[in-house]
Design a protein that fits this description.
Helices cover about 30% and strands about 35% of the residues. It has helices at about 5-10, 95-125, and strands at about 15-25, 30-35, 50-55, 60-70, 70-80, 90-95. The chain has a 6-stranded antiparallel barrel. This is tRNA synthetase class II (A).
Length: about 130
Amino acid sequence: MLTRRSTSMILGITETDVTVLQDYKDHTGDCVAILDQTVFYPQGRGQPTDLGGLITVTGRSNVRRISFLDDEVIYTGAADSTLPIGDSAYVTANGVLRRRHTLLHSGGHLVPTGHRCITWMFWNYRWPCRPM
C-alpha cells in the first residue's frame, strides 16, 4: 500500500497554496487565472498538461489547461465564480493522470530507442566463419 510520502515521491508535488495575481474571462467564457506558482506540468515537449482543481473561499475552478507566458503561470478552466486578486487559493493536480502521462511520455522515448538497438544488432551481426 502506498503511503502519502511514497506517493509524492513517485508523482512529485501535486498540491500547494498559491496567491491569485490576476483573474479574467477569455473569449470562450473560461476563467483564466494567473498565479504566483504552480505544481502543474504545462503542456509541452510531448507530455499533456496536468488536470486538477483550484479552490478558493469563493468557489472552485476545474483546471483544464496550464501554460506559461512571459514567466507567468496561466490556469484556464471553468470556474464557479471569479477569483479575487490577492486571495489565497489551493491547487491540486490529478496525480493518477500525471503518472499515466509520465509513463506514456517515457514509453515514447523507450520504443524508438529499443528499435534502434534491435536494428543495430541485426545489421551488425557477424556470421561465424565456417570451414569450407
